[in-house]
Design a protein that fits this description.
three-stranded antiparallel sheet, globular, 9% strand, Endonuclease, Chain A, four-stranded mixed sheet, 383 residues, alpha+beta, 3 domains
């Protein structure tokens, strides 16, 4: 028998609200923790003040407060995710020349010439802004929300898989975020030996039945893109099945091959570098199983999706007129951003958003975490 994870180190950490990355209230004095002290110094530096004033938005406080209520001590992971794309988008949309702020950046960090680091500067500025924004936006209201959430997260609960007692506050932030805040499994469950191939071929259809979709090859209970799609009521049994499966690469060259041998894929599918190319119920050709899932939802709701329509021309963002959306439904352009977080992909995402804004197009953006709530996300299409 073995454990899925060993979280001993994290259980010994103090994740109480008073020790969060600095809470600017009278409830806390300056922390001796090096990271907290670093962020406090960063926020009060000329560089920190400058980037905060440069990128701040009136909505940031609203978002932070909601994450404090929903995710408690893990709020920064979610807040930083939202900040990252917004700051990068602002840099491109407003044509901000980061070289102007590079001397201030260097006053905080030791780097080489601008040309050596300019590729990563948008991401670095977004990261630092997220840090100082948490510092500046925290107040008594957010602290109280954190405190109430912490009481619930710190209370002992029983793992619904193995019965072991655990605290959610014993999770590292990457586990909590990776599991999309699901709190029913301790992630230290004893798991069996790797099953044989025949057993695995039976478990694959069970996994698909439980989670309600065919997952991508990187599925994991701590992969946010996967876990955000799993319904809360199905979470425990889905994770239990994954624990029983071990790793499919013990028996198959690829996840695609495992799906084929398990008999869960029908005809008209093939593997590509981007995923599984397949045909949806509408007859549309899709570049991934996620795209097929969305297309099937559109078809099931009698929305007759047009696949890969051309965007209208634009002298800057679509001069050739060859840029495409994923779907056109009624008069809405619909995009699935399944690779968000990759630098090249994020840049193309921002360019498409700029195009939509400049042409004032009706537009819906779908991200992996939206796939479990398409009824809500795409409700306007059924009106």
């Amino acid at each position: 028998m073995a454990q899925y994870m060993d979280l001993t180190y994290y259980k010994n950490l103090d994740n109480s609200p008073a020790s969060l990355v600095p809470i600017r209230t009278n409830k806390r004095t300056r922390s001796t923790n090096k990271m907290h002290a670093f962020i406090e110094d960063l926020a009060n530096s000329e560089y920190g003040v400058t980037i905060y004033n440069l990128f701040k938005s009136d909505l940031d406080y609203v978002v932070l407060k909601e994450y404090a209520r929903k995710h408690g001590v893990f709020l920064t992971k979610y807040f930083q995710r939202d900040i990252n794309i917004r700051v990068k988008k602002k840099i491109l949309e407003d044509k901000i020349d980061l070289r102007k702020y590079y001397p201030l950046y260097c006053s905080q960090y030791s780097f080489g010439a601008f040309e050596q680091v300019q590729k990563n500067l948008p991401g670095n500025f977004a990261l630092d802004f997220g840090r100082v924004a948490v510092y500046y936006l925290n107040d008594d209201d957010i602290f109280n929300r954190l405190n109430e959430s912490y009481k619930l997260q710190h209370a002992f609960r029983s793992c619904q898989l193995c019965g072991k007692h655990f605290r959610v506050t014993g999770f590292p932030d990457w586990v909590y975020y990776g599991a999309d805040g699901h709190k029913t499994v301790c992630f230290e469950c004893p798991i069996n030996e790797i099953p044989d191939k025949q057993r695995l071929l039976k478990l694959i259809p069970q996994l698909i039945e439980k989670c309600g979709f065919i997952p991508n090859s990187d599925f994991s209970p701590i992969n946010h893109k996967f876990s955000a799609r799993v319904d809360e009521l199905k979470w425990t049994e889905t994770v239990g099945t994954i624990f029983q499966m071990g790793h499919y690469r013990e028996f198959f060259d690829s996840w695609f091959r495992a799906l084929v041998e398990a008999g869960v894929l029908r005809d008209n599918v093939r593997v590509t570098s981007r995923g599984v190319k397949c045909i949806a119920k509408s007859g549309n050709e899709c570049n991934s199983l996620d795209e097929q899932f969305i297309d099937n939802w559109l078809f099931a709701n009698d929305l007759n999706p047009m696949k890969e329509p051309m965007y209208p021309k634009h002298p800057k963002y679509n001069p050739s007129g060859r840029r495409r959306a994923d779907w056109l439904v009624k008069d809405y352009y619909v995009e699935y951003f399944g690779l968000a977080g990759e630098e090249t992909y994020d840049k193309k995402t921002i360019e498409k958003m700029n195009l939509v804004r400049e042409l004032d197009l009706k537009f819906i953006a779908i991200f992996p975490e939206d796939l479990n709530s398409l009824d809500t996300k795409l409700a306007k299409l059924r009106q």
